[in-house]
Amino acid sequence: METIQLLDPAGRRCAEGPAATAAELAGLRLDTTAIDDDLMRAMYRDMVLTRAFDNQATALQRQGELGLWAQSLGQEGAQIGAAHALEEDDYLFPSYREHGMAQVRGLDLREILPLFRGTQHGGWDPAAHNFHIYSLVIGTQTLHAVGYAMGLQRDAKRAAAAQRADGDGAHTQATGSRAVMVCFGDGATSQGDVNEALVFAASSQAPVVFFLQNNHWAISVPSSTQSPVPLASRGAGFGVPAVRVDGNDPLASYVVTRAALERARRGDGPVLIEAVTYRMGAHTTSDDPTRYREAAEEQAWAERDPIARLRAYLEAEQLADADFLTGVDAEADEFAAATREHCRALAAADVEGGIFDHVYGLPHAQVRADRDAHRDFEQSFEESR
Ligand SMILES: Cc1ncc(C[n+]2csc(CCOP(=O)(O)OP(=O)(O)O)c2C)c(N)n1
Fold first, then answer.
1. What are phi and psi of 310, to 5 degrees?
2. Which cofactors must be present for this protein to function (predicted)?
3. CA distance 260 to 30
4. Between the N and C ends of the chain, which has fewer C-beta atoms within 10 Å?
5. What percent of the chain has pLDDT over 90?
């Protein structure tokens, strides 16, 4: 299966022929003219800021300020390219490492920290940026996304009926021009929820784009174990057109996602995008990837770094001068420092702080038992002092 690429790993623009052909096979019309210089600079800035934030959050976890952290390191190209293709009205369901997408949606990334500090279940208002809260239960968000997209279809139908009844054009067809995107990983494709979501999306032709980041590893399980065929080729079995894109190429990720979202908004149904990328860091801060993968593999992917790739292109084409590049680096340093300050000022994780009270609407025996076990655990430190 062809992998769509517009920038090669050295940051040189590729011939568009193969990309266009691969996209056409999935019924997508790529529009590379939509990529302008400002957009590329914006993508570069978003990638650098996200990485600075992500590295800082990793350090904060190591220093005991966060309970856990899931890095987006290496996946910024896939995420930031794709998220720039969303319209404001579109709705995005992330998994748990879509920090790059959060940045593009306009979330203050620091709002992500309480979830990983263990003080809040969500952390932000999903409606504020049409960016849903993170889902740590693998694959579950794909069903939420398809349900939301099916809801949009029904809203559009009702609005059209009302418009016909009124005859005065007072009802717009805005609900009919929105799309949904959902993120998940290669490991999640083995989950029942994801397969059910693809079935429902196909049978209802829901306006949803499945954005699969194949980062090669589901904790310690390689994606080659999850599937002997390219994951995108599974789309055909569901009747969902699918494409494979180089996820470390933000420009390719952008144009492919844009075409898929437009197709969904036109009412032509779902698309599956497999963005081929690499998780350059550990699965989370609880993981040690040296136990299951080779340094040579990590090195090979470091050479395909999405930030270095876009930077090389911007410099070669004289689209970014030294002032711009050092300005972005300085902004990233400042943001990392502000992230650090913000995190350290957050309330400490506290068993009495409400985290166990807001799991369900009503008290629940299992949650109470978990709370008591955690309280005992915390007190064991007091006793040993
Ligand atoms: C339903 C469910 N099963 C198992 C887990 C444990 N788990 C957490 S992350 C993970 C691997 C996910 O891999 P992938 O979908 O490739 O996403 P990635 O973390 O690589 O982005 C697993 C099995 C979980 N969180 N939820």
1. -70, -35
2. thiamine diphosphate
3. 9
4. C
5. 89
